[in-house]
C-alpha cells in the first residue's frame, strides 16, 4: 500500500433485494474485515457499513450488529492486496482465495485427500500401478467453501439445524453467505440456489459426494465448527441466566439488555425491537408518559387498549381486542401507537389481505407480543366477503382457543400445531359474524371525534422517540426477575375477580377479570419504582364497566335465539314461506281465519276480470313452513322444522350472519324457553307430534308468549303489545319506537318466564310441559297438556314424544 494508511472504502454497491440485505452486508463486512490488519479503522468501517445498510432498508440495530460480525469473521482470515494494486476498479480483488492452502480428509499416499488451491476444491486420486503409482488431483467445483457455523434455529416448538457457509470464487471474490438446511446439504442443489450460475459443481454423482465430504473436512481443518442458536420467535425463552424476553434487536433479562443473542424474525417483525430498559428517573418518566396516552381517547377505549398491551408479556391472551369504527375515526392511527410499544411502526405489520396460513404463522411467531391485524372491511364481492369471514373466524377462534391447525409431515408423521402465542389487536369497519366468534373478542367502538388529534400527534411524536417502547422494556425487565410468580399471581387474581365481572358470556367475564388483574399487577410495579397510579383506579373500573355493557349488546346481536324472531317474521313478510291456520281448508277464505294474511306469508292478487262481481284471491308465498292454531298469541304456532330452518338459514346467510345447525338452533330456543321441550330426566326433546287433519306431523311448537313479544300479530283489545311499535326486551332483533306495555291482566299467567317458561309456583308453566329435571306436578293434567288449542291429549306408547290431536 506504498506505506500509506488505507482509508475507509467507499461503499456504493447496488441495493440488494429484500430478503438478501442481511447476507449481502455480512459478505461485504467479511471481505473488508480481511484488510483491517493493513491499517483500516474498525469503528470507521463499521459506521460506513451500517450507514450503507440502513440506506438499503435494514434497521440500525441489525445493521450495526451484522457489520461487526462480518468484520470479526474477516479478521480471522486476513487478506493481502494484489501486487498490481491500483490497476483494478474494484477494491479488495485478490488474485488468490482466502481459503487457499486448506486441506482435510486425511492422507492419500502421504498427500491430503482434499485441498483448496487457486480458489477451487480439489480431490486426490491414485493413478498408475506399481512403482509408477502416484497421486493426482481433479477439481470438484470452481469455487471454495467452508462451513462457518452450525446453527440451531428454534421457533420455541421445533428446532432446525442449518449450516452457514462462507464461499469464494476462484478469483477470491466472496460469495453471499449461504444458510443451508442440514437435510439439503448433501444434495448440493443449494449451490445454484444461493450462489447462482457462476458457482459450478462439476458433473457426476461421485463429484457431488466428494464435494460434500470435502467441504465438511475442510471446515474442520482449523478446529471445531462454531455453533450458535438462532431464535425465530418473540417473547420469553429460558436461558442459563434466567428468563429473557426476545425482540428483533436481541433480548431483555432481569439485568437489562442481554448480548450475544441472535433473533431472526423476518420482514414482518423487523421493527419489533426494544431499547435498553431505563432505570431511575428515566423509568419513572417512561411510566408516566405511557399513562398519559389514556387521554388521547375516552377511557372506555384507551384504558382497555393499554391494559391489553401490558397483559401481553404475561403470556398468551385468550381473546382478541377488536377496535371498531368507521373510516376516518383514526382507529388505525391509534392502534399503531399501541403497536409501537414494541418499537416504532409507521404502518401495520399485517392486514386481513394476508392469507390464513400467513396470519396463523404471524400469530405463532409473535409470542408474548402484540400483533396488529388491520382493516377488516366489507368486501364488494359476496365470494370475497365469505372468504374474509372464514379467515377471520379461523384466526379469532384460534386466538380464543389457543389452538392451531394440525398438520402432517411429508413422511406421514404428525407435526406440532402452531397456535397463536401472543395477543391480537384487530381494527375494522365491520364486525365478524358468528356468536361464538364475537364471544372470543372484546369490542371497543371508536366514533369520529373520539380521538383528540392534538394528543394523538403528541403520542405519535413520543412513539418515534421510543418513549412507549422504553416503558414496555422496563416492564418486561421487571417481569423477567420472577416471571412464573407473576404469571401465577395473574391467574389467581383473575379467578378471584370473576364474580366482580360476571357477564352474559363467560368469556367476557374472564377477559375483563384478566384486564383488571393486569392493572393491579402493573400498578404495584409502578409503586415499586416510585410512581403512584392510584388516581387511575376509578377510571380503570369505569372503563371496564363500559366495555362490559357494550359487549353484551354485541353478543345479543349475533345470538341466534335473539335473531330467530326477526328472521322468522321477516321471512314471512318477504314471501320466503307462509303459515296456514290449523282450521283452514282449501277453498275457504283465508280472511275468515287471519286478520291480516300478509303478516303470515300471503299475498292478495287482484282480479284481471272486468266483471263487477269478480274479486281477487289470496295466494300463499313460498313453501309452507308451519301452522297457526286459534289465537297464536296464546297458543303459539307449529313450525315444520326442516322447511322453517331452510328458509331462515338462507335469509341469515344472505344477511352475512349464518345460523347454527338445525338441531343446535332448536336446542338454543328450548334452553331460552321459546319452544316447548320435554324431558324424562335423561334426555330432552325439542319437537312434538301433532295430528293435523288426521295426519301425525312432527313440529316445533313456538310458544305464544314468544309470539306476543314480536309484535307481529293483529292488535286486539287484550293484546298488550302493539304492532311494529314496541321494542322487545331480550330480543334485540325485534325493534320498535316505544317500550313494551304491560299485558292485560288475563294475559299475565300466559307470559313465558325463566329459561324454559316455568312459573315459580309449580316449576312448570301453565301449559304443563315438563322440564328435563322435573317430574309430574300434582293437579296439572299430564305433562303433555296443551290448553286452549282445541286439542285432545294422547300419549304415544313408544318414543316418549308428547302429542297434540287436532
Tally of helical runs? 22
Which strands sit side by side, in order, in the main sheet? 21-24-25-29-28-31-30
Average pLDDT, to the nearest integer?
82
| SS elements, strand count | 31
Tell me the structural class.
alpha/beta
The first-to-last residue Cα distance is: 112 Å
User: β content, as a range?
Assistant: 15-25%
Question: Shape from CA axes?
Answer: elongated
For the CA atoms, what is the radius of gyration? 37 Å
Residues in helices, as a percent range: 25-40%
Low-confidence stretches: 1-10, 82-95, 711-806
Q: Major sheet: size, sense and barrel closure?
A: 7 strands, mixed
What does this structure look like?
It is a single chain. The protein is an alpha/beta fold and 806 residues long. 34% of the residues lie in helices and 19% in strands. The strands form 8 sheets. The chain has a 7-stranded mixed sheet with strand order 21-24-25-29-28-31-30. A hairpin with a 2-residue loop joins strand 28 and strand 29. Helix 2 crosses helix 3 (60-75) and helix 8 (299-311) packs across helix 16. The longest helix has 23 residues, at 506-528. The protein is elongated and about 125 Å long.
